[in-house]
Structures are given as structure tokens and as C-alpha cells.
Amino acid sequence: MIQRFKGPFRIDSITQFLSCPRAFYFNEVKFLPPERINLNWLAARAGHTVISQAHREQNFSADNMFERFLDLFEKQKARVKTETFGAVDFEEYRSMLKGYANMPYNREAVVLALDSEFYFDIRPARTTYFFEGRIEQLLRIETDLLRAEFSDVFESVTKSSIILHRCLKFGQRRHTSSFELAMNVRLDILSLALKNGIFNHPPGSIDHVSRNTPYHWDIIPDFHAVYFLRDHIPYKDDGGRYLRDDNGDFIPCDLVSSPCLVGKKQDPCKGKRIYCTKKSRGPAMFFTARPQARIHAIPRELMPLCAAIRMGHYPRQLGELCLNYCGYRSACESEIRQRA
Ligand code: SF4
Questions:
Q1: Ligand 1: distance of its center to the CA of 327 in Å?
Q2: With a threshold of 0.70, does the pTM exceed it?
Q3: How far is the CA of 317 from the centre of ligand 1 (A)?
Q4: Among 47, 310, 315, 19, residue whose Cα is nearest residue 185
Q5: Cβ distance 104 to 180 under 8 Å?
């Protein structure tokens, strides 16, 4: 008898299905716990929690954030019962948290929602599909603060402040072209949630006191962003001599509004250099939007994916995931061997 997925759709399970339907089957249909846990995944989770705490307490002391991060990571690691793998570079996390804390567009953001859980349903045809999940950050930010760092995106924005929905990433930067961001199924679902979902936090309540008060945001943020904190990690080598004008003076930098910290001593950059790592470093935040017409079309776009999951066909998606990351490799291998 075919075993089918019956639960509500969650973003992580949908992305897991897109990566490998068989891994989705082991996780969401057979409810097998993952055989091993990547420590970097635990570290990213601790990083998320620390950033949320910093916003709640309005305390962006980088040292304090890093100490909390270490404490939380060790507690989470102690609770893990399965095998772990991967090595966490704690100095990278220190830099990422410090980079976050240093940015005025983070420190001065007005938090509308943090880690707020939602549910909603779609009925693109005859079948109703239920979704649940969590919005990480919904913020109001002064446009000038963003324009200072992302002039190309905010040059023509006339509003004095914008509403930004944002997902934080501690992993490697990927899928950041405007096309990939427009296709991002995670942002599709989250934009639908902000428009149609029922949330457990009413506006302004970023603590857990009113966690059970349902609220309908009915909002289309001006922008959605994916924020790669790795872009805040300083390059180990910022080589290159400073360029000088005819009078021997440093030439002002035209890439960033405030000087980057460069070299082994992390001194503020004095101006243009023969080569500048800022050019190859990403801007950290990557923006996209989901206007009303697109939101209207998303349920239809999700329908084939939801229907495929409900049909109970969970083929193997052999690839890199099998060898490096899959938490169900032994179960998968034993299935194959039984049929061989
Ligand atoms: S081992 Fe590979 S094919 Fe099997 S579930 Fe994992 S990712 Fe999918």
C-alpha cells in the first residue's frame, strides 16, 4: 500500500522534496529521525536565536551576542542524541554576528514580527492544501539607511521607510540572481503567508506574551530579502596598494559609504586600492518583491508540487546530497540493497 504524506506543508519539507523526494519520504512519511546532524546547522540555529534576542532586547553588543551564541550552541549540541558531523569555525560566526550588529539598517530597524508562526490554506482547484511555517523577520527600515549600502536598489524609492521581510542565512551564498530570487519557492510561500496567513503574534508584540493571539497581517512587504551573513566575514588578505592622486593624496572610495576594515590589523580603509575585495564580496542582502499579481498566481504555481507530494511518489534524487548531507543515507541504502 502506498504511504502518503498527510500533514500540512512546511517550507523546509517542500524544499527537501525538491532536493530529494525520497529524503522527504523518510522524514515526513516514515518519520525517521536524521541519522546524523551537521554541527553547522546547529550553529546557524543558535545564530538565528541570538539575533532575535538582540532585537528583542535592543542590545547589539557583538561580544555579548557571540558569548550567547557559544553558550546556546553548546547547549544544543549537548541535547543531540545522534551522530554529529562537520566542524564549526567559531571565528566566522563571531565575524558574522559582529557584521550584523555593526549595520545601522539592522540596529535601527523597527521590528514588526520576529519568528512568528503562521498557517494558511490554498485552494487552487478542488483540493485544499494547508501550510504552516514561520516568518523570521518583518521590519520597517528607514530607506536612507538602506540606500547608503544598496544604492542601486533604493535609488528610486521615494518612501521614507520600507517594510522588509527578510530571511537570514549563515551558509554559503547561492541563488541570488534576480531570476533565482523571483523563482524562490520559500519566498513565494512566505509572501502568501504575509498576505493571507493567520499569525500567532499581533503587530508590535515581539515577545512571547501574546503568542496565542491570532493575527492576520494582510500585508505585501515592499521587499523580500535573503541576507547572507557570510558576506560580513572580512577577507583574510585585503592586499593591494592604495592609489594616490597627482598630489599624493588618497583617492576616496566610491563603492561603500563607510570604510571597510582591511588587512590583518583590520584598520579602516583609506580609499581606493589596486584591487579591492569589496568588489568580489557580496552586498549581504539580496532583494526581490512579490507584487499583488504574482501573489495571486502563487497558489496555482504551488499546485503541481503539492499534488506530486500528495500522490505518494517519492523517487530517489541521486546526487551530491546523497554523499555529503543526507540524513537518511543508511535507510536509503538498505532499501536499495533489499531490492538488489
Ligand atoms: S541517500 Fe540520496 S537518494 Fe537516498 S534519500 Fe538521501 S539524498 Fe535521496
A1: 8
A2: yes
A3: 6
A4: 19
A5: no
Instruction: Convert the pLDDT of each residue in 271-298 to its tens digit.
Output: 988 877 766 678 899 999 999 999 999 9
Q: Which atom of ligand 1 is nearest to the CA of 23?
A: 5
Pick from 318, 325, 338 the residue to mutate for probing ligand 1's pocket: most ligand atoms within 8 Å of its CB.
Answer: 318
C-alpha pair distances (Å), 11 with each of 79, 122, 176, 179: 25, 14, 19, 20
Distance separating alpha carbons of residues 30 and 82, to the nearest angstrom: 18
Distance (Å, whole) CA 235 – CA 232: 9
Average pLDDT in the 222-249 region? Answer: 88
Question: How many Å lie between the centroid of ligand 1 and the Cα of residue 32?
Answer: 13
DSSP-derived secondary structure for 58-81: T---HHHHHHHHHHHHHHHHHH--
Place of cell 584591487: 275
Q: Residue 257 is placed in which grid cell?
A: 559609504
Sequence spans of domains, the chain: 9-231+284-311, 236-280
Nearest CA owner, ligand 1 atom 3: 316
Ligand 1 centroid – CA 292 distance (Å): 37
DSSP-derived letter for residue 242 is: B
- Tell me, in angstroms, the distance from the centre of ligand 1 to residue 337's CA: 13
Contact 33, 79 (CB under 8 A): no
> Tell me: the pLDDT tens digits for 166-192?
999 999 898 899 999 999 999 999 999
DSSP secondary structure code for residue 244 in this structure: B
What pLDDT was estimated at residue 212? Answer: 61
Give the pLDDT band of residue 54 (cuts 50, 70, 90).
Answer: very high
Strands (E), 161-257: 161-169, 198-199, 215-216, 223-228
Ligand 1 atom nearest the C-alpha of 329 is: 1
pLDDT single digits (tens) 188-209? 999 999 999 998 765 555 444 4
Q: 297 is written with which cell numbers?
A: 498566481
- What average pLDDT does this structure show over 58-68? 97
Query: Taking CB atoms and a 6 Å cutoff, what residues make up the pocket around ligand 1?
Result: 20, 22-23, 316-318, 321-322, 326, 328-329, 332
Instruction: Please state which CATH number belongs to domain 9-231+284-311.
Output: 3.90.320
